UniProtKB/TrEMBL annotation:
Residue ranges the record marks as coiled coil: none
GO cellular-component term (any): cytoplasm
Species of the source: Wujia chipingensis
Family as reported in the entry's similarity comment: Belongs to the ArgJ family.
Gene that this polypeptide is encoded by: argJ
Designated name of the protein: Arginine biosynthesis bifunctional protein ArgJ
Keywords: Acyltransferase, Amino-acid biosynthesis, Arginine biosynthesis, Autocatalytic cleavage, Cytoplasm, Multifunctional enzyme, Transferase
Biological pathway: Amino-acid biosynthesis; L-arginine biosynthesis; L-ornithine and N-acetyl-L-glutamate from L-glutamate and N(2)-acetyl-L-ornithine (cyclic): step 1/1; Amino-acid biosynthesis; L-arginine biosynthesis; N(2)-acetyl-L-ornithine from L-glutamate: step 1/4
Highest taxon above the source species: Bacteria
Site label Cleavage, positions: G189, T190
Catalytic residues identified in the record: T190
Role noted for this protein: Catalyzes two activities which are involved in the cyclic version of arginine biosynthesis: the synthesis of N-acetylglutamate from glutamate and acetyl-CoA as the acetyl donor, and of ornithine by transacetylation between N(2)-acetylornithine and glutamate.
EC annotation from Swiss-Prot or TrEMBL: 2.3.1.35, 2.3.1.1
The organism's taxonomic lineage, starting at the top: Bacteria, Bacillati, Bacillota, Clostridia, Lachnospirales
Length: 407
């Protein structure tokens, strides 16, 4: 498996486009994107566990349950959440418009929205955007870049990745993009994520692979503790790589899962590192827990601790906040067995051994906490399980961004 250039157009048979439709008045950024598969693709999705679900989530659940999709339409600026029956009808109308423009069934069109909650979509603008995008679709790298830019809200940069691997003697490609910066505390996936592959795989195994991958990637990310109404991760597999269809949990399935995990891990880390106002990515590695669930609970408790996040921002080796977050997590462990090491490209420093402070150098610790990526290595010495979670520091800018988000 190797990383290659590109995003959602990297795999065979996919075209895309991103443009400005004008959803939010007075803005100049791109705000709509479209992805199209030359052939109908097996599809799967994971969605927010928030009881308040946006209209696009409800529509997409119907499409992914049916199992086949051929296009995705994405808009930013308006989330189409908490918009009642009118919101659902607008999601369905968006799919209908795209189906007519692309000469495919509207039942194979997925839709996704992100932005401010409580506003209905300006359907005249959406209609013009769909028509414009359908005539711009291309398979080149620049089009993938345009689409990755068009789905952003408060993100500071596009997030996309592509990988090649070998499955069944054929070269199989995965191309993906996502967006997410605030309201990130997934209980399934991220804000919006789109994964396109030319692999041939059955619907039930695609579902299983996606859900398994989500648990160790997007479900291990938190920026601010808020689970969005619009969280959606979609994967489409059009089979154009020509590999024998994956219908059993064999070597080919393992290769598929490995590539999907690599894609989702990269995207999850990109989201965490680009949290609203963030100045550094904070990674927490919990090792030697008694079971996987304990390791996951401990890791996520640490990255969601606001006090720990503030300490990371201040380059303060305040290890007490880490141990405290572990203690209230609900996971069972022996505090007197815990070792904590902080690491970065500047080196490593042990802060805690057997549950108590070491005689560490504060200046050296501050230096290690200074780079863009900071890692906490937490050893609970109670078993063989491990888990990794990703978050970010908590800065002044987070409050500034969210204090005037609607404007």
């Amino acid at each position: 498996m190797k990383q290659i250039e590109g995003g959602v157009t990297a795999a065979k048979g996919y075209t895309t486009a991103g443009t400005r439709a004008g959803i939010k008045k007075g803005k100049t950024n791109k705000d709509m994107a479209m992805i199209f598969s030359e052939k109908p693709a097996v599809t799967a999705g994971t969605f927010t566990k928030n009881l308040v679900k946006a209209a696009p989530v409800l529509w997409d659940k119907k499409v992914t349950d049916a199992g086949v999709a051929q296009a995705v339409v994405i808009n930013t600026g308006i989330a189409n959440a908490c918009t009642g029956q009118a919101g659902y009808e607008n999601a369905a109308e968006t799919a209908k418009l795209a189906g007519e423009a692309l000469n495919i069934s509207s039942d194979t069109v997925l839709v996704a929205s992100t932005g401010v909650i409580g506003f209905t979509l300006p359907m005249d603008v959406i209609a013009d955007g769909v028509k414009k995008l359908s005539g711009m679709l291309k398979s080149d790298v620049q089009s993938a870049q345009d689409a990755a830019e068009a789905i952003l809200t408060t993100d500071t940069h596009p997030k996309q990745i592509a990988y090649e691997t070998t499955i069944g003697g054929k070269t199989v490609t995965f191309g993906a993009m996502c967006k997410g910066s605030g309201m990130i505390h997934p209980n399934m996936g991220t804000m919006l994520g789109f994964i396109m592959t030319d692999a041939a795989i059955s619907k039930n195994l695609l579902d299983k692979a996606l859900k398994g991958s989500i648990e160790d990637t997007f479900n291990m990310v938190s920026v601010d503790g808020d689970t969005s109404t619009n969280d959606t991760v979609l994967v489409m597999a059009n089979g154009m790589a020509g590999n024998p269809e994956i219908t059993e949990e064999n070597e080919d399935y393992e290769a598929f899962k490995e590539a999907l995990l690599a894609v989702n891990t990269y995207l999850a880390k990109q989201i965490a590192g680009d949290g609203e106002g963030a100045s550094r990515l904070f990674e927490v590695q919990v090792k030697h827990a008694k079971d996987k669930q304990t390791a996951k609970v401990l890791a996520k408790s640490i990255i969601t601790s606001n006090l720990t996040k503030c300490a990371i921002f201040g380059k303060d080796a305040n290890w007490g906040r880490i141990l405290c977050a572990m203690g209230y997590s609900g996971a069972q462990f022996d505090p007197l067995k815990v070792d904590i090491v902080m690491a970065s490209e500047k080196g490593e420093i042990a802060l805690v051994g057997n549950g108590v402070a070491t005689a560490f150098d504060e200046e050296k610790a501050a230096e290690i906490l200074s780079p863009d990526v900071v890692i906490a290595k937490v050893d609970v010495r109670d078993g063989d399980a491990e888990a990794t979670a990703w978050g970010c520091d908590l800065t002044y800018d987070y409050v500034k961004i969210n204090a005037d988000y609607r404007s």
